[in-house]
Amino acid sequence: MRVLVALAVGLAVEITVLVLVGQAIGFWGLLGVLVLSAVVGFLALRHEGRRSLVELGRAARSGRPAEAEVADGMYVALAGVLLVVPGLLSTLAALVLLVPPVRRALARRAADRAVRAGSARMGPTVTVAGVGGPADAAGPTWGARPDPAGTRSFRGTVIEARPADDPDS
User: Fold this and answer.
1) What is the DSSP string of 93-123?
2) What span, in angstroms and rounded, lies between the C-alpha atoms of 84 and 1?
3) Residue 151 Cα distances to 12, 81, 145, 146, 165, angstroms
4) 131-164 pLDDT, tens per residue?
5) Torsion-angle region of 26 (φ positive above 0: left; ψ -120 to 50: alpha; else: beta)
6) How many helices (H) and strands (E) does the chain have?
């Protein structure tokens, strides 16, 4: 219910701002501003979206956790949705979300809230089931990849994850 009220209030504020700006600069001026903001927003979204995908790929190749890159991509997607919605305030919010330091701060805050709420844990122990096995096992083998951490790593699917301090692990 609160979400619907927030959406209704946001829509009313957006329409009020559009009417006020339209009265100040005229219909064609408002239309020009909306089109210009959409084009600039689209170009910024395309640039930041590519950058987010490159960073996600780097994280995956280096073997480090990619939570920050995933959150970054989600905020870029949210900015894209806000750019599709016609309006000046939604465009402004989208452009703010496209600023990398703002996204990083929001991602840190969201991660902290998730940890406090118990929906995310720091330092999990992960059990993975994958295809193949070590080179001395029967059947397919793991691909020979350099492992910078000196541990055995492979691609697979997480089937169970427990916190590092879990006594059952």
Assistant:
1) HHHHHTSHHHHHHHHHHHHHHHHHHTSS-SS
2) 24
3) 56, 41, 11, 10, 20
4) 444 444 454 444 445 555 555 555 666 666 566 5
5) left
6) 5, 2
What's the one-letter identity of residue 15? I
Domain boundaries, the chain: 2-117, 122-169
Cα distances (Å, whole numbers) of residue 69 to 55, 73, 75, 145: 6, 6, 10, 23
**pTM score over 0.70:** no
C-alpha span between 52 and 70 (Å, rounded):
8
Describe the crossing of helices 88-97 and 2-25 by its angle, rounded to 10 degrees.
110
Q: Which residue, chain included where needed, has tokens 């995956």?
A: 60
Q: Are 72 and 107 in contact (CB under 8 A)?
A: yes
- DSSP string for residues in 32-46: HHHHHHHHHHHHHHH
Amino acid at position 93, single letter: A
pLDDT digits (tens, 9 = 90+) for 157-167: 666 656 655 55
